UniProtKB/TrEMBL annotation, chain A:
It comes from the Eukaryota. Belongs to the glycosyltransferase 39 family. The chain crosses the membrane at residues 52-69, 140-161, 192-211, 223-256, 277-298, 594-617, 638-661, 667-687, 699-718. The gene is POMT2. It holds the Pfam family PMT_4TMC. Its EC number is 2.4.1.109. Its main location: endoplasmic reticulum. Transfers mannosyl residues to the hydroxyl group of serine or threonine residues. Coexpression of both POMT1 and POMT2 is necessary for enzyme activity, expression of either POMT1 or POMT2 alone is insufficient. Essentially dedicated to O-mannosylation of alpha-DAG1 and few other proteins but not of cadherins and protocaherins. Transfers mannose from Dol-P-mannose to Ser or Thr residues on proteins. It is an enzyme of class 2 (transferase). Pathway: Protein modification; protein glycosylation. This is Dolichyl-phosphate-mannose--protein mannosyltransferase. InterPro entries: ArnT-like_N, MIR_dom_sf, MIR_motif, PMT-like, PMT_4TMC. GO terms for cellular component: endoplasmic reticulum membrane.
UniProtKB/TrEMBL annotation, chain B:
Gene3D superfamilies: 2.80.10.50. It comes from Suricata suricatta (Meerkat). This is Dolichyl-phosphate-mannose--protein mannosyltransferase. It is a multi-pass membrane protein. The lineage of its organism: Eukaryota, Metazoa, Chordata, Craniata, Vertebrata. It is found in: Endoplasmic reticulum membrane.
């Protein structure tokens, strides 16, 4: 066969895809239908009857154990731990219905808020900083909710692995790995988004696997049930954090290959294939999108009061929030000379044009008054529009009202300090290629560098300028540059507000486009702002833009310790959840090293074993029936899990934002499931290769028991990390944890 | 001459199949030997050169050279990014070390080769676009290499299409399109690297195709080996010119991987033979490129061995290995730091700027602007310039002297030391007071005893990070050390923040509480070092002012230098500043942007980077059409409807994988990049797209035009379309070559898109 690229590739892929599920369905019944023939090699678990009963009993046991570990000492410590300060606070915002901004989608926090509300928490606790005592506030409802979802991860993983491998020991090993992992345990015990996210991810995975196993009965009730449940869980995962996108990719890939297989099945008519496609589009695209949008609808309906998040959003958006000065406001529609205005940058999360009585420090351009942008409402955001050539007060009743028109030359006077918006050929403080913008002049008298031409984007000359609606640019007359904000944070001397520059590059970017927000002019009639309220799709789009910008704004600083993705699988370093000193109650988020290193080893082994089998098959080697079955489980089931692990891990290498250890946990779930399948397969292969059946059976049992007990024992050793410890730090030789500090970098 | 038992045909392979298990080992050995013979088959034949000249290729090369080399030394002024690459050429000419974060040094080296051949002495100040070249700059020979690379892309396009199984007609088409693409011409005629990158990209693809086509007939023949090795070398050259070349390399690797997978599935080959094939590919496509890449750095480091303006970014050890600069100062310093040594301590991380641990008379202000209080003790900072206040004396806590004993008592890993500031004789100290700008960390000061129950805490434990044993001695320059405070377990760290005016805008140094977490900003190394001899403070001050000297030299191994240089290049941050002509990848496909490269100082003759719009538009359309057709065929094949015969389908897929794939891998990654992007970044992708265009056209003519009439009509259309492209080329030619001054009205007429910033002089 000539080695030629695509055709052969696609062809061979198709073939393997097509025969894959068929053999899987053959293997399935074969295993159960023919226990007698296989019992020779099939160890310990004995008859089918016992197996069925045992499966349920084990599931119950696993679930019980999981709940027991997660709910044990849930109330400890009774103070705010780590990110509870954010997510607890946001839960309270929902109860208080105040609007806030967060970089994550709203569902997770909404659920936390709901749990708090149902459990009788009144939203009055401030969640100011980690370490604050809860005292009489009821926090157990929220923690309990998170722990509940976190506990369900274990039975979900158990069922997923059972469905993929049809092997109880594999499922049991997976369940043990997760139950006894101190990291999963810790992460499930606090008011965080992660247990909720992981719950949806695992639920989506489980329902995908379940629905795949219904593939031989398409359009049956369970098929529809699992398919739509997959869609619902996908919406949930994405609604909690954008990391949910990875499980969507996973399910998407699964669905595409499934459809491709159906499409190649010539026994199915095109109509049937079309039905299959439509069902998936409906359940995996339309349904999740609807639900996802619905969470936003709820979010915006519930949060109808002005709060700390207003400034991140556009002026039009703010007019929805009661308590905001734009809510139900009525302001003059057209800009006139003498109006007092605030000017807002059109780019999300830049804020209002601002100035204050502080000068640029020595050595940074001219030593004149600072001009910045500021996200919060403040009197220093107010500016007065004046004509460039007269200083007469236009509000003098003797003058007629004169509107500002597109192309007019104006002067902007800062209301509080009476200095003019000014620019000149000095370089800007941070963006060296731009010009500095300052406040200049005394009581409104400055020089010709205070003149700006006001232009409305895409409008003809001579038009009036509308409040909120008109997108305006301010062009400096002398230098020809455009007023803009670079979005960079000024150092301490600028109060960490954002830099304002005059950019010589005239390209229209959002950074240099502004709109007028507040507008006060007693000589003009007011109109109601109701007409300006954005529609729901606009709001949805805007909030996503703000979130994406917020996310990419979370950049690590150079000289800070940051967690790197390569740290994670090797369990290089944990996260302090609570406490620093030896007298504190300390909780340290760290994976159970035995579990994590076993996982790491398993991935390497899996890759070796998997490629060996794949090459053998490609070379046309004939595998014995037993090995054939096992390798199918390994390649297909394990392959899905490996894909899940890779999808939830590798994209982090590309992310520029600040990363934390806990980002690895969804990947860790997949990796633990892979470990379960891999070791079961390995032990079976090993047992199969031995001549004596009793020896084989013994080996298999001992191997499995060894793994289970080893994990349990390591949990016994490391459990203080999760349940909390007091006393000397581990680097102190007297500490009971001293012997457990296996890596220098662990800090508990 | 032929080895016995080695059948000539491919299928036969090394067909010795041992029948008994006992013979297996021997059989395999025999097979391996035979395979080895076979792999070295090219040695068995005499080297015969048969000239087989394709006049098409000759003609294409000639017109290619003509189009790229015509009036090459015009304009005799710095054009656009020549100002950037030129300075590196000068560095090479003067043998001065430099570091360019934008790409590996191979491209710069090629440009410098032109300078070397033209006898350039490197004396030109590359400071301004449009500056006239002085007579010592051999403009023509500097521009010759990129221009030649651009010219050779034309015949290579022809060859690639032939190897892809297209007709001569289509192949000529591809070459002729390359020939009249204005943007490619502009970019080739200057000291820029895109044309070189495109050349190596195409070379990699061409040689891989040649290799894979000879796979069918004569595996392990000399030409098979030649093309295989050339693929690897071309790939690493592409990566060596610019990092984006790595995407083409990955594409070639992926295609080779798929082919190798089919090879594994070919059951007519014996296992050993397959193994041989795989090993040969691994050697040529993985090992060779890696080795070549390292070789570039080896040449770079041996060429540029003098110290220069980029030294500061590198570690002390690296700097000391360069001629001049730090080496002149540190040459002959005592190696082992002993109690009583006078040292300067440089931060290893060196961001935002490289700096040395520093202290001076000034104290921390009693109250900061934020209202927090300080200890009011003497400031300790990190100072980015050499200064006498950077000197510290390593003191044994158990002794009072500040001089080195005879024999010196070396400081070892784990020892507890005190650091005394040389000019003020105060002790480096930290305590539980929040640092000025990083309130979560401790303040570091030089201790001043105010008698206010704040005791001195000036003991530091030395941790050598890169130690081999736990009793390692602290070495000058080589040892990377952390200073861990004994009382509070904090570690001395450069926070990276600039202190306000009271701290003279120097960098803040703090005691970091998360001492377990390793970060380079907590690591320091001794740069300058001498054994202190003066007992008295006055004498000591004089001693500190005098330059250090002694005479031992130390050299860093090449591997260490390579790794450090590569790491610094990858982490060097380009200030992501905007540029007047920067653009986003979305603008490129539609040619919604342009770059003014050069304007004649008096007339409006100018060079402007503009593409041939007809080619850009049709190449874009062809790509869309290819994808649509591909998906359509793929779906139909899945339902067992084969529109194309098997072999033309396979050719269609391979052409798509290389050409459309080449376009995608050279274009799409730019969406993820955060650096400033320009139109010329799109040119490598465009080159692949141009290759795809004739493939699609030929396919339409062969498979979609059913009747002869349609086919003739289509050919007529093609001729019209190509003349159209020629017309556009001709119209834009004055902007491409910059040789003719156009009147303002002519220039306005050429401004076909509003976003093209063609420069028009005001009258």
């Amino acid at each position: 066969m000539p080695p030629v690229v695509g055709g052969g590739l696609a062809g061979s892929e198709l073939r393997s895809r097509r025969c894959g599920p068929q053999t899987a369905t053959v293997v399935g019944p074969d295993k159960t239908a023919d226990p007698a023939a296989r019992s020779l090699k099939r160890p310990a678990w004995g008859s089918r009857h016992f197996e069925a009963a045992g499966r349920w009993a084990l599931l119950a046991l696993v679930t019980l154990l999981s709940f027991a570990t997660r709910f044990h000492r849930l109330d400890q410590p009774p103070h705010v731990c780590w990110d509870e300060t954010h997510f607890g606070k946001m839960g309270s915002y929902y109860i208080n219905r105040t609007f806030f901004f967060d970089v994550h989608p709203p569902l997770g926090k909404m659920l936390i808020g709901l749990a708090g509300y149902l459990s009788g928490y009144d939203g009055t606790f401030l969640f100011q900083k980690p370490g604050d005592k809860y005292e009489h506030h009821n926090y157990m409802g929220m923690r309990g909710f998170c722990a509940f979802l976190g506990s369900l991860l274990v039975p979900f993983a158990y069922l997923t692995v059972w469905e993929l491998s049809k092997s109880l020991p594999a499922a049991l090993l997976t369940a043990a790995l997760l139950t006894f992992d101190t990291g999963c345990l810790t992460l499930s015990q606090y008011i965080l988004l992660d247990p909720i996210l992981m719950f949806f991810i695992m639920a989506a995975m489980l329902s995908t696997v379940k629905y795949n196993s219904c593939a031989n009965r398409p359009f049956s009730a369970p098929w529809w049930f699992w398919l739509s449940l997959t869609g619902i869980n996908l919406a949930g995962a994405l609604g909690v954090k954008f990391v949910g996108l990875f499980i969507i990719l996973q399910v998407g890939w699964n669905t595409i290959s499934d459809l491709w297989h159906l499409f190649g099945d010539l026994s199915l008519s095109m109509v049937t294939v079309g039905k299959h496609l439509a069902a998936r589009v409906l359940c995996l695209i339309v349904l999740p999108l609807t639900l996802y949008t619905a969470t936003y609808a709820v979010h915006f309906t519930v949060l109808n009061k002005s709060g700390p998040g207003d400034g991140f959003f556009s002026s039009a958006f703010q007019s929805r929030l009661s308590g905001n000065n734009l809510h139900n406001a009525s302001i003059p529609e057209h800009l006139a000379y003498g109006s007092v205005i605030t000017v807002k940058n059109l780019r999300m999360a830049i804020g209002y044009l601002h100035s204050h009585r502080h000068l640029y420090p020595e050595g940074i351009g001219a030593r004149q008054q600072q001009v910045t942008t500021y996200l919060h409402k403040d009197y220093n955001n107010l500016w007065i529009i004046k004509k460039h050539n007269t200083n007469a007060d236009p509000l003098d009743p003797s003058f007629p009202v004169e509107f500002v028109r597109h192309g007019d030359i104006i002067r902007l006077e800062h209301k509080e300090t009476s200095r003019n918006l000014h620019s000149h050929y000095h370089e800007a403080p941070l963006t060296r290629k731009h010009y500095q913008v300052t406040g200049y002049g005394i009581n409104g008298t400055g020089d010709s560098n205070d003149f700006w031409r006001i232009e409305v984007v895409n409008r003809k000359f001579g038009n009036r300028i509308k409040v909120l609606r008109s997108r305006i640019r301010l062009i400096h007359l002398v230098t020809g540059c455009v007023l803009g904000s670079s979005g960079k944070v000024l150092p301490k001397w600028g109060w960490e507000q954002l830099e304002v520059t005059c950019t010589p590059y005239l390209k229209e970017t959002l950074n240099s486009i502004w709109n007028v927000e507040d507008h006060i002019n007693p000589k003009l009639p007011n109109i109601s702002l109701e007409v300006l309220q954005p529609s729901f799709p606009e709001v949805l789009l805007e909030s996503h833009m703000v979130m994406i910008r917020g996310n990419s704004g979370l950049k690590p600083k150079d000289n800070e310790f940051t967690s790197k993705p390569w740290h994670w699988p090797i369990n290089y370093q944990g996260l302090r959840f609570s406490g620093i000193n030896d007298t504190d109650f300390r909780v340290y988020l760290l994976g159970n090293p035995v579990v994590w290193w076993l996982n790491l080893l398993s991935i390497a082994l899996y890759l070796l074993l998997g490629s060996a089998i794949a090459i053998a098959v490609q070379r046309g080697a004939r595998l014995p029936a037993e090995v054939e079955g096992l390798s199918q489980v390994l390649l297909r089931g394990g392959g899905q899990l490996l894909l899940g692990w890779a999808l939830h891990y590798f994209p982090f290498f590309l992310m520029g934002r600040i990363l934390y250890f806990h980002h690895y946990f969804p990947a860790m779930l997949f990796s633990s499931m892979l470990t379960g399948i891999l070791w079961d397969t390995l032990l079976r292969l090993w047992a199969w290769s031995l001549a004596s059946s009793s020896l084989a059976r013994g080996l298999y049992v001992v191997g499995n028991l060894g793994l289970l007990l080893g994990t349990a024992y390591s949990f016994y050793l490391f459990h203080p990390l999760a349940y909390g410890m007091v006393g000397p730090l581990a680097q102190d030789p007297q500490s009971p944890m001293a012997g457990l500090r296996w890596l220098e970098s662990w800090d508990f | 001459m032929r080895v016995r038992g080695l059948p000539a045909s491919r299928g036969g392979g090394v067909g010795v199949v041992p029948d008994a298990g006992r013979d297996r080992g021997q059989g395999v050995l025999q097979e391996l030997l035979l395979l080895f013979y076979k792999m070295l088959g090219f040695l068995k034949h005499p080297v015969v050169v048969t000239a087989n000249i394709n006049l098409n290729v000759v003609a294409l090369t000639a017109v290619g050279l003509l189009s790229r080399l015509w009036q090459l030394s015009y304009p005799g002024a710095v054009v656009f990014d020549e100002v950037y690459y030129g300075q590196y050429i000068s560095f090479y000419m003067k043998r001065i070390f430099f570091l360019d974060g934008s790409g590996p040094p191979f491209g710069h080296m090629l440009l410098a080769l032109g300078g070397y051949l033209g006898g350039f002495d490197g004396n030109f100040l590359w400071n301004r676009i449009g500056a006239e070249y002085s007579s010592n700059v051999p403009v023509r020979s500097l521009r010759l290499l990129p221009a030649a690379a651009g010219a050779l892309s034309v015949p290579m396009a022809y060859q690639i299409l032939l190897e892809l199984g297209s007709s001569h007609c289509a192949a000529m088409g591809a070459a002729l399109l390359m020939l009249i693409e204005n943007a490619l011409i502009t970019q080739s005629r200057l000291m820029l690297l895109e044309s070189v990158l495109i050349f190596f990209n195409l070379l990699a693809v061409l040689s891989y195709l040649k290799f894979s086509n000879s796979q069918k007939q004569r595996p392990f023949s000399p030409s098979w080996w030649f093309w295989l090795m050339l693929t690897g070398v071309a790939c690493s050259c592409a990566v060596g010119v610019k990092y984006v070349g790595v995407f083409t390399y990955l594409l070639v690797l992926a295609v080779a991987g798929v082919h190798a997978w089919h090879l594994i599935g070919d059951r007519t080959l014996s296992n050993v033979c397959v193994l041989g094939h795989l090993l040969a590919r691994a050697a040529a496509l993985l090992v060779t490129p890696a080795a070549t890449y390292v070789l570039f750095f080896y040449v770079h480091l041996s060429l540029a061995y003098r110290s220069g303006p980029h030294d500061q970014i590198m570690s002390s050890a690296f700097q000391a290995s360069l001629e001049g600069g730090l080496a002149r100062i540190t040459q002959g310093q005592p190696l082992e730091v002993a109690y009583g040594s006078q040292v300067t301590l440089k931060n290893v991380f060196g961001k935002p700027v490289p700096c040395w641990l520093h202290s001076h008379q000034s104290t921390y202000p009693v109250v900061y602007e934020s209202g927090r209080g300080s200890s009011h003790q003497q400031q300790v900072t990190c100072y980015p310039f050499k200064d006498v206040n950077n000197w510290w004396i390593v003191k044994d806590p158990g002794r009072h002297q500040l001089v080195v004993n005879n024999p010196p008592k070396p400081v070892r890993h784990g020892d507890v030391v005190q650091l005394v500031h040389g000019m003020t004789t105060r002790f480096l100290n930290t305590h539980d007071v929040a640092a000025p700008l990083s309130p979560h960390s401790q303040e570091v000061s030089c201790y001043v005893d105010y008698n206010i129950s704040m005791p001195a805490q000036n003991l530091w434990r030395l941790e050598i990070v890169n130690r081999d044993s736990d009793t390692e001695v602290w070495k000058t320059i080589l040892s990377e050390v952390r200073l861990v405070h004994v009382n509070t377990s904090t570690v001395l760290k450069l926070s990276g923040a600039h202190l306000p005016d009271w701290g003279f805008r120097q960098l803040e140094v703090v005691g970091e509480k998360m001492a377990r977490a390793y970060h380079e900003s907590t690591v320091w190394n001794v740069e300058e070092h001498r054994y202190g001899k003066s007992q008295e403070q006055k004498e000591r001050e004089v001693e500190l002012h005098s330059p250090a000297q002694m005479d031992v030299s130390r050299n860093l191994s090449f591997v260490a230098r390579f790794l450090e240089l590569q790491w610094r290049m990858l982490t060097a941050k380009s200030d992501g500043s905007e540029h007047k002509y920067s653009s986003s990848p979305l603008d490129w496909v539609t040619l919604d942007t342009s770059i003014a490269y050069w304007l004649h100082p008096r007339t409006s003759a100018q060079i402007h980077l503009l593409g041939n719009v007809v080619i850009w538009a049709s190449a874009g359309l062809a790509t869309v059409l290819y994808v649509l057709l591909f998906v359509w065929y793929l779906l139909r094949r899945r339902r067992k409807i084969c529109d194309l015969p098997e072999d033309s389908w396979l050719r269609w897929v391979l052409a798509g994988a290389l050409c459309a794939g080449g376009w995608a891998v050279n274009y799409l990654p730019f969406f993820l990049m955060e650096k400033t992007l320009f139109l010329y970044h799109y040119l490598p992708a465009l080159a692949f797209q141009i290759l795809l265009l004739p493939v699609v056209l030929e396919h339409i003519s062969d498979h979609l035009c059913r009747t002869q009439l349609l086919r003739s009509l289509f050919s007529a259309l093609l001729v019209a379309w190509y003349s159209c492209a020629c017309h556009v080329f001709n119209a834009l030619r004055p902007l491409t070559y910059g040789d003719r001054s156009l009147s303002p009205s002519e220039l306005k007429a050429l401004r076909w898109k509003d976003s093209w910033d063609i420069l028009i002089r005001k009258q």
